[in-house]
Amino acid sequence: MNSYAKALLDIAEKHDSVDQIAYQFDELNETIFNNRKWLKMMNSPMVSHVEKIKNIEALSLNEHLATMLKMLAKTNQMGLYDTIYPAWVRMIRTKNNVAHINVYSVKALTETQINTLTKKLKPRFKGMTIEIHVKVRENLIGGIKLIYQGQSLDNSIAHELDELYMTV
Question: Are residues 84 and 105 in the same domain?
């Protein structure tokens, strides 16, 4: 177990902000996954602590998640992020029976589409409450992309085109 993830969970529970931090941590993880240069820059001793703090504050995160990140940045230990996030995910899966699923689509989903998606996902998340968070991403072209605790199921047309391009 990662002590940073455990400490964050303990604080989140104390302040009744587990769901908010889980959601924001998932969002942050996707951002970092798509832009590894950000994490490298945040871990660099060549970037001032003031600049690192400004970058973290610009994310508008829960104060406890932001505080942990600021501490890692100040000590040039942002490289630990790659162990902290997965440990956090494992603890949340065990503790919290709510599956926060980010759904990326080229346009907003209707309530009927969200209900259908929830029913299709229910067998994969037995005993869990599913919370769908829809985000519009016009660069997808079509289809949807699902992210659950750092794992992606990408069924978008943009992804299919990327796969086709890689095989040609």
Answer: no
